[in-house]
Amino acid sequence: MMRHLMFFCMLMTLSACDYTGDWLFAGTVEDVPSIVHLGEIEPVEVANQADIDAAVILGEISPTGTAEKGGITFTVKGTGDDICIWVDPELVTWNQSVSGLSPVSKWQYPDNIFDDGDLDLYAGYAVYYTGSPGSSIGNFKVLFQDALGNDVPITLNECVIASLNTSNGGHSGRGAPEFCTLEATQPGVSYMVLMETWSTPLDDDRLGYGLIVTHGTCQDLAGAADWGNEECVLLGETLDPETQTARTGSIQFEQAFCDAGFDMGDYCEQEAAQKDCEDADSGCFCGDITNTPSGGGN
């Protein structure tokens, strides 16, 4: 017993126990913030794709390195009318079609999931926001005291997500855009918008995003875009770390993804012929075809 105790003490001396759990989380990126406040954003009028491209706000966010939440916030003043908040995180994602009987040709290649991330969108009256903009991420929960004196948490989130990838009230998932319409906003009242970091790309932990705030509904915004697919309302959110512009080839990749008549298998085959997509550092947007699961296998 004494020998075991001595061994344990020696082990503790050599390596102290880490109870924080920080080692479980992705580390911060030196030149990319983990919590950002963009200030007040003025809604814009958009009539076509050119207007959208000119008004999109591009940025990057990284992990906090701890269990602390990270993300982007900004405020927008109510106008008396509808306001659309639309955010598109890096990049696109799909499920590979592996059916042996009726495979979907467009999706027969796997997606490269390592370059995708996810932001969850929330919004509400700024007075109800519990975070400290630029310092800590909060929420829109307030405590209501019922007749028995119990504190009951109530969520005052005004942003109800509705897209092709989610039912009302949920979130769209990895790499997919999230958007909501703040209906009949109160004139002059400040609304806080939160884009909470759910995940960052495994390849570099730099999560690029595109953001636009417009007058009118999000249905109006989608109608002004050239592409029918929600994913291509905002393009170029995957940023090159050196130039802070759209990563080479990423816009063409998104457009191929959005084109219902284009076979992504053709795009991925051409990419694989030019690059070694088995190499995680190859820069391929598609996944490695050799990772395709087979019947009874992985």
Descriptive account of the structure:
This protein is of the alpha+beta class and 298 residues long. It has one domain (24-290). It is built from 5 helices and 10 strands. The protein has helices at 2-14, 49-55, 218-224, 250-258, 264-274; strands at 35-40, 57-61, 71-77, 83-89, 118-125, 141-145, 151-155, 178-182, 190-199, 207-215. Strands 1-3-9-5 form a 4-stranded mixed beta sheet, with no helix packed on it. Strand 6 and strand 7 (151-155) form a beta hairpin. It is globular and about 65 Å long. The mean pLDDT is 88.
Radius of gyration using CA atoms only = 22 Å
Amount of helix: 10-25%
Mean pLDDT: 88
Structural class: alpha+beta
SSE series: HEHEEEEEEEEEHHH
How many domain modules? 1
Q: Please give the alpha-carbon distance between the first and last residues.
A: 46 Å
The total count of helices amounts to 5
Beta-strand percent range:
15-25%
The biggest beta sheet is recorded as: 4 strands, mixed
Shape: globular
Instruction: Give the uncertain stretches in residue-range form.
Output: none
Order the strands across the largest sheet as they lie in space.
Answer: 1-3-9-5
| Beta strands, count | 10
